[in-house]
Amino acid sequence: MLKEYRSIAEVAGPLMLVRNVEGVTYNELGEIELANGEIRRCKVLEVDGSNALVQLFENAAGINIATSKVRFLGRSLELAVSPDILGRVFDGLGNPIDGGPPIIPEKRLDINGLPMNPAARDYPNEFIQTGISAIDGLNTLVRGQKLPIFSGSGLPHAQLAAQIARQAKVLGSEGKFAVVFAAVGITFEEADFFITDFRKTGAIDRAVLFMNLANDPAVERIATPRMALTAAEYLAFEQNMHVLVIITDITNYAEALREVSAARKEVPGRRGYPGYLYTDLATLYERAGRMRGKEGSITLIPILTMPEDDKTHPIPDLTGYITEGQIILSRELHKKGLTPPIDVLPSLSRLKDKGIGAGKTREDHANTMNQLFAAYARGKEAKELASILGEAALTDVDKLYAKFADEFERRYVSQGYNTDRSIIETLELGWELLDILPVSELKRIKTEYIKKYHPRKDELQDLEG
Question: Could you tell me which residues are beta bridge partners of residue 15?
Fold first, then answer.
């Protein structure tokens, strides 16, 4: 039988101190019963001898210290899972909010999970097609990878997230692919956009959605990504599915951590964030990956808005240390009207070389990728030079590179949010753009590939290799 305590000593904001408790553990759930019978939930943040510091899930208003009582449930926050969670929409604590029936659980899983043993990890090496050329062609996503998207306030990361969730697939095994989407601290309008988009396109049939709104408690915001990753672990390692997890917005999650840390009067770290922010983010990100002996995998795309577009801010900075690259959205490209405004030059996928090439995408992928990067970089330099010295200062070849840069942004990067390009279409488009340049400038591509894939290959058969 559960013990009830009438020893609430203090309530300060979202925190409450309960004295003279026995056998209470860190992260344990509790219930507070008010004099009028109303039940509110809480979670243990700290245990010091017989004192327990708990955080409230709901508002502290109306809690009378003298007449309220607390009981601890002997378990941490859990998610009820079964194959029926696919196609459903939940709140940040795993309760259905789509009007459907409650989930009849196959089991209940602790949302804090366990970190994956490094020795049990399998190396990510399978291509995931997102249908977005700037990602597939140049910063390739690999199954089991952690690839964050760095955005800024007002940039269209929500549309990009919905597009990736709608279009992503592992080639050859589409039937076993699922998306777990967690929205953390977003507005009602954003939540409605995601749910409507998933339903309209039919993507919801293979998706699990967790929605935490901006007016929900901070403690729920901290739980939401863990709920999503617990659902992903169940689908990946028990149902053998390839799971793509998209979490937006990690910045809201970190702000909730800072709020709780300040309420606990902890010594702040950089910019007021708790000193354990790196460790906390790692407990989320490192739950993604592939496991030896398991068919399923978890690929993670966390999305974060960089405060003041600052890449050195603690949240993007620490995220960059833990993950394998980043996709960066550019305010400058957004002002030009490019959709999606992905800035390919500072973006990076550290595992892209493992997921491309013969048998995965196509043999010429690595060569054309390097040539496109180099040509775009030189084209941007030529345009900067023209803006300073005038176009007359450019050589004929520089003018071709400047033209290439413009066409590359207009046709390759900017494809809209409803265009789903196969990897072959992306590679062919890359070749079409490289045809703007003289063949003598294609120094990063093997001659055999030029003869085989160049749009004017029939004219170039006499090239010397």
Answer: 12, 55
Residues 111-158: tens digit of each pLDDT: 988 778 888 899 998 999 999 999 999 999 999 999 999 999 999 999
Q: Which of 143, 83, 137 is nearest to 107 (CA)?
A: 83
Q: What share of the chain is helix, strand, coil (3-state, %, to 5)?
A: 40, 25, 40
Q: Put residue 304 in one of left, alpha, beta given phi > 0 → left and psi -120 to 50 → alpha.
A: beta
Q: What stretch(es) of the chain map to CATH 3.40.50.12240? A: 78-354
| Distance, CA of 112 to CA of 305 (rounded, Å) | 25
pLDDT single digits (tens) 150-200: 999 999 999 999 999 999 998 876 668 999 999 999 999 999 999 999 999
Tokens of 133: 């050329």
d(CA 455, CA 443): 17
- Residue range 78-354 forms a domain whose CATH class is alpha beta
CA 455 to chain centre: 37
The residues of the chain that CATH labels 2.40.10.170 are: 4-72
